[in-house]
Specification:
The protein has twelve helices and 14 strands. The N and C termini lie far apart (58 Å). The protein is 35% helix and 28% strand. The radius of gyration is 25 Å and the shape is elongated.
Length: 361
Amino acid sequence: MSTSAPQPAPEGRDPHALRPTPGTRVEFRHITKIFTNNKHAETRALDDVSLTVEPGEVIGIIGYSGAGKSTLVRMINGLDTPTSGELLLDGTDIVPLPEARLRSLRSHIGMIFQQFNLFQSRTAAGNIEYPLQLAKMPKPERKRRVKEMLDFVGLGDKGRSYPEQLSGGQKQRVGIARALATNPSLLLADEATSALDPETTREVLELLRKVNKELGITIVVITHEMEVVRSIADKVAVMENGKFVEYGSVYEVFSNPQTTVAQRFVATALRNTPDNVEAEDLLAHEGRLFTIDLTENSGFFPASARATENGATIDIVHGGVTTLQHQSFGKVTVRLNGNPQAMEDFYRSLSRTTTIKEIAR
């Protein structure tokens, strides 16, 4: 974890109060994890995984069930050890550390869970206070910190409420406040929104982005929902069969996914190409159908103007444009009718400047 000396608190301020952190640098170096059952059959949960998460980054690690995501989380917080390889937090390999050192390390790592994992017998304030009690923080400081955390997550009036009195989104906010209470430099969110409805998911993701922007905490988001990655992450790593099969900025992976699994995930979030049923409906009409990548240099609009001038008609029948990391991209599906040569010229012209695919009948 970050070993830089903490900055002195301003006069009159709680020295343990919530404050910005340098964020943790996480490095996986050739991590392999093999599980062996009682019949000596081996399962390779992680297979020679290497990846670096820079301090203050938000990275989304996405994959389907069984891809190795949960095993990866357990490695980061020292709850499981690799069969081989190194896992470095701020340059320190945690794999050979004894349990006493790992317990100390975990105090710098916040964890947010899918099912909230709140103590039902404790109020919201009591849940947030729990890790501070374990850290032996004096009671007056604990009370100040709990109030600060409740205000930070927008639950200043819910401190005395028990989990059963809170909505799912409020429970997750309590979970986030608890995870932040000890001023961690690394936050792990394991399927933190999969139990929430879409509107509540958006609110929780906005809160996590606030955590990152205001506090500088490195956040590792484990998810199977590409919309979560789109909303919060700087980088995305796609897992399949225990390996990272694709990695890059969110814009790079969304705008040009290279692997089949990444393409499937992106399609669920963008919905800018017709699915099989929609394509069948579109093909029931006359004309040629083309799906075209839209970028700043795609040349779609000039090509459309020329085709129209030359006797073709163009109808946009499907598509979508989105903006990620200050860059726009998208796809559009069009139907062309009319002059056969104008339609062919349209296709050949765009083939030189962008990706265009004809939907075959």
